[in-house]
Amino acid sequence: MKLSFFKIQDKKAKQWIIFYAISAMVMLTLHYVLDLKFFEEWKNYIPFLKRLTLSLFLISLILLARKLIEQFIITAAQTKGDEHNLLRVTRLVSALLILIVAVAFIFQKLYVLR
Questions:
Q1: Domain membership flag for residue 80
Q2: Residue 61 forms part of a structural domain
Q3: Could you give the number of structural domains in the chain?
Q4: Residue 15 domain-assigned?
């Protein structure tokens, strides 16, 4: 079995991969744009917005990795049973990672807005 490069056949999956990649880049860009002097008027909200954009960036990366792993599993799975089980495990792991990121965001310094 040769899997040097797998092709994504599903058009919807390609669209989601592109969406997650673009949203990750936008969130990371916003995270660093918030350091500009233009936003000094909102200095009370900057720490919150930076944490929010970083959390959304991480969630986008997790979803992007999940979609890529799902496509790899669909390409490489030997049987439908293996494919189903691996896809379920992938979705479970990604959901847990997203939950960890969300909980970390929620419980980080709730008193930031001074």
A1: yes
A2: yes
A3: 1
A4: yes
Share of the chain above pLDDT 70, in %: 89
For residue 61, give Cα distances in angstroms to 23, 28, 35, 78, 103: 9, 11, 22, 27, 17
Q: What are the structure tokens assigned to 87, written together?
A: 């896809």
Region 2-10: mean pLDDT is 62
- Which backbone phi and psi does 5 adopt, to 5 degrees? -155, 130
pLDDT digits over 19-35, tens only?
A: 999 999 999 999 999 88
Q: Which domain holds residue 38?
A: 11-106
Q: Name the token pair of 1.
A: 């079995």
Nearest 10 degrees: Cα torsion 102, 72, 15, 97: 0
Q: What is the mean pLDDT of the chain?
A: 86
